[in-house]
Design brief:
heterodimer, A: 187 residues, mainly alpha, Rna Polymerase Sigma Factor, Chain: A, Arc Repressor Mutant, subunit A, 9 helices, 0% strand, B: 261 residues, alpha/beta, Double Stranded RNA Binding Domain, DNA Methylphosphotriester Repair Domain, 3 domains, 4-stranded mixed beta sheet, 10 strands
């Protein structure tokens, strides 16, 4: 999501709340869904988290004066809301851990020398694997590697130093690699 | 590790389920407008893809396949578009008529574009066939005189070229400037077809003549204004800039509003 497009969106939101919000939903639906899926590992949860995020954004925008709306950093702001929604749900469920059941996991048999894009099923498995990471690693890995934010952006969003984020991403990726390896040996 | 990171990036490109955006909008009480549909329309430019919804025409592309049109539409406007085999009769006549140069009043749906973009496109839609204005003129007319570059960007992203005639906006120095639908030569060709002599405009600008005045009416215009073209050769006077025009006692034309150029 380019920042130019974000500026267009915030300007639209400031002058035309209905049309602007519509544009915002169409511009961000996939991105927030992908974030929610990677964090929760469950398509049903992902849809609820993403929808909740938009609803909270809608309430917030209706209260903000337009001077505040035009300076919003939309991408970071929406991810922050999504992260809060996700954390609240996880807390309510007493941090339900996603079980890693090798029987339900499908190895990507097509993974030859020339790599193909993952199938929908394989992406679900990957999301499942990611959602098994400890939360601090998970948020860092998802924001950096799935959503493509810079380390500086992730650090600002999570309120941690960049070095800590880098370490979390590194450890998270190592864990993922180990578990993914273990999975393909099982299947 | 690299393979894993590529896979993770793929995870970031997962799409929300169909109808997700509509469910969100319904949940916050925003009634969905009719979805966009598109069809092929025969015009003097050849077959073009045109999309529309309940608000008006939302997009047009002259080149490319249906699949390319759909991908471009969703990336440009952020929403899907559905194909219909046969366009509504009235729409097809309006579009082909407008492209052929008949005076057609078209409704456009620009509502989901940014407010600045909307202003630029609506102003550009006012430029008559056979005439051109500068990027600076558009910027000045919409009350953003310093946003000349941004005008160029907005016109480069025009989702409805030809019908919103971004090809009629040129540089103040008389050269044609960028044209996203096929480059400067395509721009020259389409202007030529509309009766604008691009070579003559460049020649005028090269000689430092930005305006044309009439000795009889003491009014000055942009060179392509239909009033300027009615001035008989002996009465025609070429003017360098506003200062020279005013100094010689000329008033700006109220039709083409040349001082904005």
């Amino acid at each position: 999501m380019g920042s130019e497009r974000d500026e267009e969106l915030t300007r639209a939101l400031a002058v035309d709340p209905v049309g602007g919000f519509e544009a915002l939903v169409y511009a961000y639906q996939h991105r927030l869904y992908a974030f929610s899926l990677a964090m929760s590992g469950e398509p049903m949860d992902a849809e609820e988290i993403a929808q909740d995020t938009f609803m909270r954004a809608h309430v917030a925008l209706s209260r903000y004066p337009s001077e505040r709306i035009v300076v919003l950093k939309l991408n970071a702001w929406l991810h922050q809301i999504a992260l809060n929604v996700f954390r609240n749900r996880a807390r309510r469920r007493k941090l339900r851990l996603v079980p890693l059941d090798p029987d339900t996991l499908i190895a990507d048999s097509a993974a030859g020398p020339e790599r193909q894009a993952l199938s929908r099923a394989a992406l679900r498995e990957l999301a499942n694997l990611v959602s098994g990471l400890p939360e601090h690693q998970r948020a860092a890995v998802v924001l950096r590697c799935v959503q493509g934010m810079t380390y500086a952006e992730v650090a600002a969003l999570l309120g941690q130093p960049e070095g800590t984020i880098k370490a979390s991403v590194h450890r998270g990726l190592q864990t993922l690699k180990r578990r993914a390896g273990a999975l393909s040996e099982v299947s | 590790m690299e393979l894993l990171e590529t896979d993770l990036r793929d995870l970031g490109h997962v799409n929300a389920p169909d109808g997700f955006a509509e469910r969100v909008l319904a949940a916050v009480g925003i009634a969905p407008r009719t979805p966009d549909t598109y069809a092929e329309v025969e015009t003097s430019l050849g077959v073009v893809h045109v999309a529309w919804n309940s608000e008006g025409i939302s997009a047009l592309r002259a080149a490319g396949t249906a699949g390319e049109f759909e991908r471009w539409f969703i990336s440009r406007l952020g929403r899907p578009v559905a194909r219909v085999e046969v366009p509504p009769d009235r729409l097809a006549r309006q579009v082909s008529g407008a492209i052929a140069g008949l005076d057609r009043r078209l409704r456009f749906d620009l509502t989901r574009l940014g407010p600045f973009e909307q202003d630029v496109l609506r102003k550009t839609a006012e430029i008559p066939r056979g005439e051109v204005r500068s990027y600076a003129w558009v910027a000045r007319e919409i009350g953003r005189p310093r946003a000349v570059r941004a005008v160029g960007t907005a016109l480069g992203n025009n989702p409805i070229p030809y019908l919103i005639p971004c090809h009629r906006v040129v540089r103040s120095d008389g050269t044609l400037g960028q044209y996203s639908a096929g480059g400067t030569n395509a721009k020259r060709a389409i202007l030529q077809q509309e009766g604008v002599d691009a070579g003559w405009l460049e020649m005028l600008a090269g000689n430092g003549a930005r305006f044309i005045g009439s000795r009889t009416t003491q009014v000055f215009c942009v060179p392509t204004c239909s009033h300027a073209r009615r001035i008989k050769a002996p009465n025609r006077v070429f003017l360098r800039d506003e200062r020279e025009a005013r100094g010689a006692g000329y008033r700006p034309c109220s039709r083409c509003r040349p001082i904005a150029s």
